[in-house]
Structures are given as structure tokens and as C-alpha cells.
Amino acid sequence: MPLALLALAIGAFGIGTTEFVIMGLLPEVAGDFGVSIPTAGLLVTGYALGVMFGAPLMTVLGTRISRKRMLLLLMGLFIVGNLLSAVAPVFAVMLIGRVVASLAHGAFFGIGAVVAAELVAPEKKAGAIAMMFTGLTVANVVGVPLGTLIGQNIGWRVTFVAVAALGVLGLLGIAKLVPDLPKADGVHLRHELAAFKNVQVLLAMAMTVLGFGGVFAAITYIAPMMTNVAGFADTSVTWLLVLFGLGMVAGNLIGGRFADRKLMPMLFVALSGLAVVLALFTLTAHNKVLAAISVALIGALGFATVPPLQKRVLDHAHGAPTLASAVNIGAFNLGNALSAWLGGLVIAAGLGYTAPNWVGAALAAAALVLAVVSAGLERGSWVSSPVIASATPEAGRRTEPAHR
User: Fold this and answer.
1) Residues 6+ apart with CB under 8 A from 382
2) Rounded Cα distance, 273 and 361, in Å
3) Which entry of 66, 114, 267, 304 is 20 to 30 Å from 367 by CA?
4) Cβ(113)–Cβ(129) below 8 Å
5) DSSP label of 184
6) Average pLDDT score over residue span 164-173
7) Cβ-count burial of 334 within 10 angstroms (0-12 exposed, 13-18 middle, 19+ buried)?
8) pLDDT grade, residue 188 (50/70/90)?
9) Using CA atoms, how far apart are residues 347 and 363, in angstroms rounded to an integer?
10) Average pLDDT over residues 167-178
11) Residue 282 phi/psi, 5° resolution?
12) To the nearest whole percent, how much of the chain has pLDDT over 70?
């Protein structure tokens, strides 16, 4: 694998840390600003919505400059947003800081996935994408637990200053190691937009929303769930997040390996397993050992869907994949925002801290249904949804799906 993938993974590590560390610090942030846990959960929802809207916006704004330069600008925006969160005098300002940082997230992973795929042979694309996302998953093993520990013992503001420093390291790594790849000749915004006429691209994005939304429904409220239901001490949340991160690392690598071989079967297994584990988590959350195992499995099964879904979007948006790739990252976070909001609703309705697990199970099951529909459409002789000719500069070219 090219060394440039390491630079992309460093940037992903910083972004992954800021995205997930807030979950372990919700009680501290809520207490500091005098707001409820569901209200503090808006820091997750706001970040996710910022990613969703920022992914296409920042990608479109960056169409006239090189991908490397755009990655550098995005890391700069990420640094500013985290510093704003660190010095926020009131909750509203911190929410703004979270949104500012989130604007870099979707476009970074979307553009980064395209760059990673271009650096390797076609049969290794999913593995390269997974390698970049390894930074995001390792963040949950190292960055998030360490950030949570710092936040609980020194102060959550110090955590966000440290996250901004990670952004600086990511920026320097990209500047030094990522090549300035030329843009594809003849590809314009209209070609990027035309990829959204492909029903398989839209189905993959819908699976992304629902599948990873299932993960966030449970994990957003892991701190109050594990302390109030399972009986863990507040300090144990850090190690539970390590387990979640280890599961993510394993799932990401497994998903990347099998996505280059058996993409749809990988999705079927991951989504069905995720739905079952989330449903059982409502019961296992009452036992410390079973709860810890469930947290790890949710991370593994949830992230096993990421490389396959990202590659599926790239396959079906062939020729003009940058915007579609970025929007799919936004789709992950639309699912995060939707599930965090729904999870907050069921908690606020008095259904208990385990109720979001049922929400997550339903979302994952819905994603599995869409996967079955997508596979059926792809096998059907009546399907007319390969990449629209106008989506690529090679007019009239038919791109056959890479996986059946």
C-alpha cells in the first residue's frame, strides 16, 4: 500500500476522534453547560447534520482545485472548528464549533476515498479505502478513549484542544505524503451530478443511512446506558469505547477484504448480524460482561459495512465518483443524526436508556431489506440502472456492476 494512505489515515484519525469522543463526554458537557443529556446529544446530531450538508457543499466548492489542496483546506477548517468548541462560553457556541468542524468531515473522507482508490490497482480499491478508514477506527481505540480520559480528569475543553493538534498533524502529513494527482480530463459538475440518476447509487446511500444509523442509535447514549443500566463506573466508559473501537478496526479490515471479493454477501452478513445484536443489546445491557461483548460486536458489524458501501458507490458512479463518494459519507452521518435524534426521543419519552437499541435494530433491519432489493435489481434482466452515459466523459459507455 502507498505511503500516502498513511497520511490520509492520520487525517482520518483526527476526524474520527472528534466525531466519537463527544459520546463519552456527554455527561461532563451537559453538566458544565447546565443542559440535559438529550439536549447535549444535539452535539452529535448537529455534527452529523453538518457532515451531511457539508459533504456535497464542500466537494462542489472544491471542484476547481486539486484534490490535495482541497484536503489541506478541509483539515484547516477542522482545526478551526475544534478550537472554537474548546473555548465555547455557552452551549450554542460549542454547537457551532461542532458544525464548523463537521463541514470538513464528509468531503475529506469522500475525496480521500477517491484518492485512495486511485493509488492502487482496481482489485485492491476496497482494501485501500479500508486502509484510510483504519485511521477512523483506530481513533476509537486510542484517540477516543484517551480523549474521554482527559475530559473526565482534566476537562473536556482540553480534549478539544488536543483534537485540534491532531488536525495539525494530519495537515502536515497530507502536505508531505499525498501526491498532487491530476483531475480526470473532461469531468465536470454535471457529470458528478448525473451519477445520482443511478438507482444503485441511491440504494447504496440509503443502506448507508439506515445501517450505520443503527450503530449510532445505541452508541450515542453508551455512557448513560452503561453507567445507569449495566452498572459500570463512569471511568469504565473509556474502556468500553476501546472495545467499540477494536470492534470497528476488525470490522473495517474484514469488510475491506471481503468487499473486493464478495461485496453483497458481506453486506448481508453484516447487516443481519447488526440487527440481531442491537435487538439483543436491550437485554444484554443489564449484564456487564454481555454488555461489553455487545458493544464490541456493534462496532465490528457496523463498520464491516463501510468499505463495501463506499466501494459500491464508487463502482456505480464510475468516471465521476468524487461527489457521490462525499455524499455517501454525508449519508453515514444523516443516519447518525437521525438515530441520535430518535434515540433521544425514546429516552425523553420515558422508555429508558436501552430503548435506543430497538431503534437501531429497526434501522439495521431496514438496511438489510434494501440490500436484498438492490441485489435483486442487479440480477434482474429488466434493470436499466447502470451508470448513465452522461455521468462520464465517455458518452455511451456502459459500465457493468463490479459485483453480483
Assistant:
1) none
2) 10
3) 114
4) yes
5) P
6) 89
7) buried
8) low
9) 17
10) 87
11) -60, -35
12) 88
Residues 95, 42: Cα–Cα separation, whole Å: 8
- The C-alpha cell 456487564 sits at 288
**Residue type for position 52:** M
Sequence-distant (6+) residues with CB within 8 A of 194 are 320, 388, 390, 391
pLDDT above 90 coverage of the chain, percent: 21
Question: Tell me, what's the pLDDT at 189?
Answer: 64
Domains of the chain: 4-391 (1.20.1250.20)
Amino acid at 247: G
- Residue 9 near residue 252, CB atoms below 8 Å: no
Alpha-carbon distance of 57 to 107, in angstroms, equals: 8
> What is the sign, positive or negative, of the torsion defined by CA atoms of 136, 142, 148, 150?
negative
Mean pLDDT of the chain: 81
Cell for 168?
495539525
Q: List, as one string, the DSSP characters of 287-352.
A: SHHHHHHHHHHHHHHHHTTHHHHHHHHHHHTTTS-HHHHHHHHHHHHHHHHHHHHHHHHHHHTTS-
- Sequence-ordered list of residues with C-beta below 8 angstroms from that of 208, at least 6 positions apart, any chain: 305, 309, 328, 331, 332, 335
